[in-house]
Amino acid sequence: MSAPAVAAGPIATPPVLDEGTYDKLREPRGAGRIDLDGKWHQISPRYVVSQFLQNGILLAVVIAVALIVGLAFRQSWVWIPAGFVILITLITLVILPRQARAIGFMLRADDIVFRKGILWQRIIAVPYGRMQLVDITHGPLDRAFGVSQLKMVTAAATTGVQIPGLTQAAAEALRDTLIDVAETRRTGL
After folding, report:
1. CA pair distance 71, 82, nearest whole angstrom
2. Residue 36 pLDDT exceeds 70
3. Which pLDDT score is estimated for 37?
4. Which has the closest alpha carbon to 14: 178, 162, 132?
5. Could you tell me what percent of the chain has a pLDDT over 90?
């Protein structure tokens, strides 16, 4: 007795995926866009606030350590690595909002497509039938802001996808949807 054939139709997306997210996916300028057969879903703007706070804490720790080592132990060399870390963190904070608006995912009939980046774009399509693990993680500050990260793992290490900045409800709904669709796709293999 063989498994019943599964029709590969459009995936019903839970409405919670678009609650509290950015309005429009930030598209890169110029040609080379890929036309896909679905709707882009985005992350929550609360992700940016959470990242600003986390990077702000990092800046405070670096400055405090540099001040202690520089003033208490009279080591002026400490300002070189501290300045480098501070500069990189400030550049990250400047481009973070634009990067967050460029993150999106699309549920299609046979796979989920994830995209991120403006200058260095990355678009990954993960077939539902190849998913081995769908995991939700969130740190203490992410929980305080109500955002989570959804991670999908496949057998190929390069196709693992992490979608940051989903609301907790959206992450749980997406996880449940992906698990349900992946089960039906594996049954049809």
Report:
1. 14
2. no
3. 64
4. 178
5. 60
Distance of CA 92 to the CA centre of its chain: 16
pTM flag (> 0.70):
yes
pLDDT at 182: 87
Q: Residues in the chain, how many? A: 189
Q: What is the pLDDT of residues 65-86, one digit of tens each?
A: 999 999 999 999 999 999 999 9
The closest alpha carbon to 177, from 41, 47, 45, belongs to 41
- Which residues are paired to 127 by β-bridges? 111
Residue for token digits 């049809």?
Answer: 188
Three-class secondary structure assignment of the chain: CCCCCCCCCCCCCCHHHHCCCCCCCCCCCCCCCCCCCCCEEECCCHHHHHHHHHHHHHHHHHHHHHHHHHHHCCCHHHHHHHHHHHHHHHHHHHHHHHHHHCCEEEECCCEEEEEECCCCCEEEEEEHHHEEEEEEECCHHHHHHCEEEEEEEECCHHHCEEEEEEEHHHHHHHHHHHHHHHHHHHHCC
Measured CA to CA, the distance from residue 72 to residue 48 in angstroms comes to 35
Residue 130 predicted with pLDDT over 90: no
b/e code 82-114 from CB counts within 10 Å (16+ = b): beebbeeeeeeeeeebebbbbbbbbbbeebbbb
